[in-house]
Amino acid sequence: MPAPPPHQPMPLPRALAYVAASIMISLTQGLAQGFVSTNIPQIAGDLGATQTQASWLMAAFLAPRASMPLLLIKIRAQYGLRRFAEVAVVVYLAVAVLSFAILDLRSAIMVQFCAGVASAPLSTLAFLYMLEPLPPAWKMRLGLPIVLAMTGVGPHLARVISPSLMGDQGWQGLHVMTLGMAAVSLGLVYCLPLKSPPRVKSIAPLDLVSWLLIALGFAGMTVGFVMGPIRWWTDAPWLGWVLALSVVALTLAVVIELHRKAPLLDIRWLASPAMLHLTVTLLLFRLVLSEQGAGAPRMFQVLGITQGQLVPLFAVISAATILGGLALIPFMKPERVPLFHLIALALIAAGAFMDSHATTDIRPAQMMLSQALIGFAGSFFMAPAMMRGLLSALARGPTYLLSFIIVFLSTQSLGGAAGSGLFSTFINHRQALHLQTLRETMTTADPLVTQAVAARAAALAAQIADPALRKAQGVAALAQEAANQAYVMAYNDAYRLTAAVALAALVALTLHIWRDAMVARRLRRAPKAPIPESQA
């Protein structure tokens, strides 16, 4: 294989333009996902649907995200990088225009599925535009932390700007914003072309078969984890069939790939101890990081906090996420990856433990520090993990790069959906348990309960003249307060569990580092074998 051409330094203004293009494309992709997940209740009202029905929008958007990069890498290699970039952004722009034609829930679900497919290439383009102007020594050290931080900040930033966009016209403001950013991204892609490597015929018929099976499996698991806590696992038998079909599809894909001479994915390498360790690490991190997306926002929603009141909190989280990526740049080296992971896990454990002391009187300002720690840790963990995987894949050859990328992206997409689903399931289970306990202690024979009902009924005297109705309203108000208290107690349990998992991972990583250090020390002290005289 010929050596790659030497890096040609790019003029600073043009290099900054490529970096700006990467940031714009990253935010375009991240905001598209955040706009949907943040505004499900408002979107449900605009569509005349329930929140449960509107949750299908999120499932439809996420379903193709985990598997699309696998096919897109092959398409990019076969048809050229420049054509891939231009077509990808044009398709995304077309879907953004199509969103203005949404009339009901069914059309909205179809458009969101198309948006999920169309936004998948944007993550790849953001990486490529960030790495394009940088010399090889800075691609990993500078480009990787920045682009991952900008990709991760999108969903948080969506909560900052959504209240300003969601006006009297509903989510039309979100569509206009998405369309505008897509148009700007298209202009940048056409004005700033990427260098295209030579095209190679890389798509085989069996690649499509394997990809379809993988796509079916990943989509089914995503739908299951998104809808499972909402419809509840045991109340919707179709969830079991969907998850079972996903397992069957993925199993068939693995069997096909194991018997191919030129597989789409190197399953044996992915099943090696080193890759399994990396996969479990990435998946575990996504699970504990779900505390930020599925924890604080939903708890505040239960407590009646509006989206507008959450803007300062998520502005702080967005800033912390960006700072986490920037803080890596001076210290980014492969040998320091375990140290970065130790710091990130410690920050997550500290932030989750701080959150676990919430009460029904808590407000967003009181969680700014803890959530900032978790947001900082997210960026601080992700770039070193991806750097280690990329270096391991490239050391074995370019063909292994595809296998690593599918591991990384699938753990992020599926891990995010699974983490949010499991977190919500745990919350619902613990809330029911706490509510039952509270109800058992709240009896009419308890004078404190009677006094609390009377106080709430007296507060309604100016609005309700009927004493019996006032008492009924007082009982209902007390029951609602008990339900809110049960939810807060459940979230505290989830925060404590998150902190415990992060601490357990921290201890395990510390022991792993200590073991590696002891092995290296023993090898340094071991006497070298004498060289035979015949070889001297």
TrEMBL record:
<feature type="transmembrane region" description="Helical">
    <location>
        <begin position="204"/>
        <end position="226"/>
    </location>
</feature>
<dbReference type="GO" id="GO:0022857">
    <property type="term" value="F:transmembrane transporter activity"/>
</dbReference>
<keyword id="KW-0812">Transmembrane</keyword>
<feature type="transmembrane region" description="Helical">
    <location>
        <begin position="368"/>
        <end position="387"/>
    </location>
</feature>
<feature type="transmembrane region" description="Helical">
    <location>
        <begin position="339"/>
        <end position="356"/>
    </location>
</feature>
<feature type="transmembrane region" description="Helical">
    <location>
        <begin position="309"/>
        <end position="332"/>
    </location>
</feature>
<dbReference type="GO" id="GO:0005886">
    <property type="term" value="C:plasma membrane"/>
</dbReference>
<feature type="transmembrane region" description="Helical">
    <location>
        <begin position="173"/>
        <end position="192"/>
    </location>
</feature>
<protein>
    <submittedName>
        <fullName>MFS transporter</fullName>
    </submittedName>
</protein>
<feature type="transmembrane region" description="Helical">
    <location>
        <begin position="85"/>
        <end position="103"/>
    </location>
</feature>
<keyword id="KW-1133">Transmembrane helix</keyword>
<dbReference type="InterPro" id="IPR036259">
    <property type="entry name" value="MFS_trans_sf"/>
</dbReference>
<feature type="transmembrane region" description="Helical">
    <location>
        <begin position="270"/>
        <end position="289"/>
    </location>
</feature>
<keyword id="KW-0472">Membrane</keyword>
<keyword id="KW-0813">Transport</keyword>
<feature type="transmembrane region" description="Helical">
    <location>
        <begin position="109"/>
        <end position="130"/>
    </location>
</feature>
<dbReference type="GO" id="GO:0012505">
    <property type="term" value="C:endomembrane system"/>
</dbReference>
<feature type="transmembrane region" description="Helical">
    <location>
        <begin position="399"/>
        <end position="423"/>
    </location>
</feature>
<feature type="transmembrane region" description="Helical">
    <location>
        <begin position="494"/>
        <end position="514"/>
    </location>
</feature>
<feature type="transmembrane region" description="Helical">
    <location>
        <begin position="238"/>
        <end position="258"/>
    </location>
</feature>
<feature type="transmembrane region" description="Helical">
    <location>
        <begin position="142"/>
        <end position="161"/>
    </location>
</feature>
